[in-house]
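Private note to self, pasted from the team thread so I don't lose it. Backbone tokens:
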């Protein structure tokens, strides 16, 4: 989905609702990860959980999120998703 796929841009919920519809998931069962207040407002307007990417440039000024992830791995932990095992390196064989 791109910004021009909907009439009203973030923070209006149209884009996130379109994605949820296309994936056939409920917004209430969806988490949106972003690094700005606009991203949190976007998630909230669509009825999704709002996670802040704490490594992002604007993340320190964000409020109202459900959680802050310090690293990408933290996003998986917050969502209770197990990361895929890394491929074995040649030296490990």
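Design output:
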């Amino acid at each position: 989905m791109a910004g021009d796929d909907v009439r009203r841009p973030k923070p209006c919920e149209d884009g996130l609702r379109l994605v949820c519809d296309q994936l056939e998931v409920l917004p209430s069962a969806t988490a949106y990860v972003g690094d700005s207040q606009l991203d949190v407002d976007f998630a909230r307007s669509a009825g999704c959980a709002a996670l802040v990417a704490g490594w992002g440039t604007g993340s320190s000024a964000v409020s109202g999120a459900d959680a802050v992830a310090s690293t990408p791995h933290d996003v998986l932990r917050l969502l209770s998703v197990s990361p895929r095992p890394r491929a074995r390196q040649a030296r490990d064989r």
